[in-house]
Design a protein that fits this description.
There is one protein chain. The chain has a domain at 1-25 and 34-45 and 142-203. Helices cover 61% and strands 2% of the residues. It is built from ten helices and two strands. Helix 1 runs antiparallel to helix 10 (175-190), helix 3 packs antiparallel against helix 4 and helix 4 (72-84) runs antiparallel to helix 5. The protein has 203 residues and is mostly helical.
């Protein structure tokens, strides 16, 4: 994420919280995907190295995909491998193919949206998240991600607050709900006159 796309009005503590969140869906047998750390927050801690691309696994799944053109699974796994290696352009290619074959999979749709965000396509990410929520209106990972993109990609703090409040409402005790609650608390601390409906009267 480029520095100029960051919400400069946010408090530093809020940036630090965002940097540690999960961004993206967790597929079975897949390690968690780390959130994109905004540069100011990343500068305060050692940068995490991307996973090395397992070329043997890439070749294996490519072979499976070629042998079975109607199977979304090897394409999804290729997307995951490239995503974890931070090769987001390649991840997009494979997530798009997987989603085309399995258009009711909200996890794939959300991972695709996250990949768009990592390639500085915030509007496209948000459009993809809308597809995820059309599939599953209670998909809290999508809502959490939507809030992050609204805050950092679109500088829409009110929209972000609404998204995070919905996560807390639906799943208060999940990791997503707890992350959303921390974000809301930090956002309110940085902007005490702001509500999810916009700035308070007289602010």
């Amino acid at each position: 994420m480029k520095p100029e796309s960051i919400v400069f009005a946010l408090a530093g503590v809020f940036l630090g919280l965002i940097a540690g969140w999960l961004l993206g869906s967790q597929q079975p047998a897949r390690k968690a995907v780390s959130a994109a750390a905004p540069p100011p927050a990343a500068a305060q801690q050692p940068a995490a190295r991307p996973a090395a691309l397992d070329t043997a696994e890439v070749e294996r799944y490519r072979s499976l995909a070629e042998r079975d053109p109607s199977n979304a699974t090897p394409r999804l796994q290729l997307g995951n491998l490239y995503f974890d290696a931070e090769q987001y352009g390649e991840a997009i290619t494979w997530y798009e193919k997987a989603f085309e074959l399995d258009p009711t999979n909200a996890d794939v749709s959300t991972d695709l949206g996250v990949s768009y965000y990592y390639t500085n396509q915030a509007d496209r990410a948000l459009a993809q998240f809308e597809k995820s929520l059309a599939i599953d209106p209670r998909h809290t990972k999508t809502m959490l991600n939507r809030g992050i993109v609204l805050a950092f990609g679109k500088q829409d703090l009110e929209g972000a607050a609404k998204a995070w409040e919905r996560v807390v409402e639906l799943a208060p005790n999940t990791p997503e709900g707890q992350a959303a609650r921390r974000a809301l608390d930090s956002l309110k601390a940085a902007h005490p006159n702001m509500t999810a409906d916009g700035p308070a009267a007289g602010s």
